[in-house]
Amino acid sequence: MSIAWYGNQSAAESCNFGSLAVVWPLLDRMNVAGIINRHLPADAQAEFEHGSVLSLLIAARLYNPVALVNVAGWAGESGADILWDIPVEKITDDRLGKSLDAFFTQRHSILASLALHIADEFSIPLSELHYDPTHILLHGAYEQSEARGDLQEGEHVRSDDDLAPAHITQGRPMSDAPKDVQMIHAGLCTLVDEFGALPIFGHTVAGNQNGHTAVAEQLALLKKHLHPPELTMISDRGTFSVGHLLRLSDSGYHAIAAASWDDFRSLFDEQWEKLTWKEATYLSLEQQRRRTQGNLGPVAILFGTRVVGKVCEAAGVVGGMLRRGGGETVGRRSWRKAISAQREATQRCRPTLLYAA
Fold it and tell me: pLDDT band at 51, cuts 50/70/90?
């Protein structure tokens, strides 16, 4: 990438754009700045539009994440100040913070507009979305964080500046979350194809909420802002409930979700002769690619046994390091034996499962 620039004499003879050579035209094609400016008209007296400031901040996060106070230094070293036409001395943490505050007031509308534009520009279907919430641990003083009201009241779905921030509070203890830690839950809808996962839309809920609340609010926001004519929502066991299935069904949508076998054993016994079986796989697209290319490096591989009428559990996991029950690291010789056993098991049992359609 090359540019022509006219301005005051600079002490720097050159700058290394690095990955900005890809990031800058990509953000331009995504129309990030334009979409943000459409939702956040700048003050007439403002020197720079929110879209320019925030797209610069996005580039910084993609290029080399730094604290807000260090974005100016990064911009000067990388040449981002030239590409975005914002002088280094104008890239202050105060300006970045004000644009982030403005973004929050239209966050759902901006994210949805970006998703719709990107789907059209890059021919990305939004008919199948994977949803998964995760927790974000926070440390500090958050006494001012308060519980917000329900997202949906009747037919009205609150969003943008009508919806307060997620409540930072204590959640249930988890393996990576101490008992008294404060947190929020962030859920992402992603498109998954042969290139990997592409985040499309996100939303946060209080730290003391669970996956049932998170997926219900996400669906309500999807319907309000994205208006998908058809949708299959794919999620894990933590988001599954009868209510979730009913909400999707009432909207004419579909679901693929993990559920407890005990909850459906009797229904299966009653309906199994009427079911049509299809073959699926435990392996992700990336694992399938590695399998076909013969790359059995330090990635976790799940093995399952093909059975009729029941999904089997994973029979083993092999990663870059194997550990015994007591936590002792397995030696190199044992590791090689495990890899050998893994390959033998691969030949004996296909990593597939059966599901009813």
Answer: very high
Sign of the alpha-carbon dihedral angle for 272, 273, 278, 279:
positive
187 strand-pairing partners: 133, 203
Long-range Cβ contacts of 289-293 (<8 Å, 24+ apart): 289/194
Contact (Cβ atoms closer than 8 angstroms) between residue 318 and residue 247: no
CB neighbours of residue 33 within 10 Å: 20
> In whole angstroms, what is the distance from residue 314 CA to residue 345 CA?
12
d(CA 173, CA 247): 29
pLDDT of residue 220 exceeding 60, the answer is yes
User: For position 299, what pLDDT does the model report?
Assistant: 34
Do you know the residue count of the chain?
357
DSSP 109-153: HHHHHHHHHHHHHTT---SEEEEEEEEEEE-S--TT------SEE
Using CA atoms, how far apart are residues 337 and 265, in angstroms rounded to an integer? Answer: 38
Mean of per-residue pLDDT scores for the chain: 80
Confidence (pTM): 0.74
- What is the token pair recorded at 15? 């700058």
Q: Where are the alpha helices (DSSP H) in the chain?
A: 20-29, 32-39, 50-63, 71-78, 80-83, 93-104, 107-121, 211-225, 242-250, 261-271, 285-292, 332-348
